[in-house]
Amino acid sequence: MTDTIEIDRLHKRYGSRVAVHELDLHVRPGTVFGLIGPNGAGKTTTLRTLVDIIRPSSGTVRILGEDPRHGGAALRRRIGYVPGELHLEGRASGHRTLSFYAQVSGTRDSAATLRTARDLADRLGLDLSRPVRTLSKGNKQKVGLIQAFMHRPELLILDEPTSGLDPLVQREFLQMVREAKDAGQTVLLSSHVLSEIQQAADEVAVLANGRVVADGDVASLRLGSIRRVRAELATTDAAAARADFDRVPGLTGLEVQDADGILRLSGTIDGAIDPFIKALAPFEVRDLTVEEPDLEESVLRLYGAEVQR
Ligand code: ATP
User: Fold this and answer.
1) What is the whole-number distance in angstroms between the Cα of residue 149 and the centre of ligand 1?
2) Beta bridge mates, 34
3) Which of 85, 34, 38 is nearest to 210 (CA)?
4) 4 Cα–ligand 1 center, Å
5) CATH fold for the domain made of 5-219
């Protein structure tokens, strides 16, 4: 079976600046593919070539078996697209705006499309009666998501789809992605938030400096194996405690502050968290934070050499 998205040696230059460098990326039908990378990595550029907003400097791009340059309206009807920067400034209400999109882009009859739009608006908590230009950033983003999903396209191309959405709405969005996959739709989404991609995607490519530095299933990328930790411990023997933590495997960048019997320590763990937790156990732990570092840091730590190429 042909891949739903076939990107081969895609190269895009803006003047002397190379935004995407000889990129190869294939997405199989019925899968959810995550494109992840720090700001400026080339995600938006790649997705825009798929919907023919920009054209490659060289290389080839095919979606649903066609060249986006020549697919025209018939191809666009089979796609749902959420742009990275959504501009909705019209006076029309959400409902009117979506009706208009349903008429111009629906493969199904527009009544069914609008029913789906209303259901999605309910799920996302969007008031369709308000003029779109008066909506907050997050609510505009919901309009963007609905117009992409409502006609049940074969392929969804979503550029940073959760930007501006609060966590509950993000969760609903991830459910929409799972339902799309269950219905046999193919999804390509970009993000600079790792946890979102971890929950949604079957396969992932990590983009940095316009190149794929790693790809595969989410677990194999080890991106999730890096965590930032901070703890506050009650102890009268800071030096001994510090020595205990110096021995924890995988803990680097350890910083320790000692004040009034409270030891504040922070660092980065690459790999298993268990040795760190065991090292905490003998102490009275006053506070503990374990968090995902920003993606840029994880990518640089794991794939620094490839990023510099
Ligand atoms: P972000 O998450 O910040 O949107 P991104 O991964 O989507 O980042 P792109 O927007 O594709 O990255 O940008 C890739 C590179 O190309 C960046 O260095 C950017 O400055 C550059 N670039 C993008 N569009 C243009 C343009 N129209 N003219 C010049 N340079 C551009």
Assistant:
1) 26
2) 189, 204
3) 38
4) 24
5) Rossmann fold (3.40.50)
Tokens of 30: 């019925």
Is CATH 3.40.50.150 the classification given to domain 223-307? no
For residue 42, give the ligand 1 atom closest to its CA.
11
Amino acid code (one letter) for 92: A
Structure tokens at 13: 């230059």
Residue 212: C-alpha distances to residues 33, 45, 90 (Å)? 14, 14, 38
Whether ligand 1 lies within 6 angstroms of the CB of 45 is answered as yes
Token pair 């018939």 in the structure block, residue: 74
Residue-by-residue DSSP string for 204-273: EEEEETTEEEEEEEGGGG-GGGEEEEEEEEE-S-HHHHHHHHHTSTTEEEEEEEEETTEEEEEEEEES-S
Q: Which of 267, 47, 286 is nearest to 155 (CA)?
A: 47
Pocket test for ligand 1, best of 7, 13, 44 (most atoms within 8 A of CB): 44
C-alpha 194 to ligand 1 mean position (Å): 19
pLDDT of residue 107: 60
Using one digit for the tens of pLDDT, what is the confidence trace for 21-48? 999 999 999 999 999 888 889 999 999 9
Output the furthest CA–CA distance in the chain (Å, rounded): 73
Q: Where are the domains of the chain?
A: 5-219, 223-307
For ligand 1, say whether the CB of 34 is within 6 Å of any of its atoms.
no
List the one residue out of 268, 216, 179 whose CA is nearest residue 36.
216
DSSP-assigned states of every residue in 98-150: HHHHHHHH-SS-HHHHHHHHHHHHHHHT--TTSBGGGS-HHHHHHHHHHHHHT
Q: Cα–Cα distance between 104 and 112 in angstroms, integer?
A: 14
- Pick from 81-90, 148-157, 261-270: least confident: 81-90
- pTM of the full structure: 0.84
Distance from Cα 158 to the centre of ligand 1, integer Å: 16
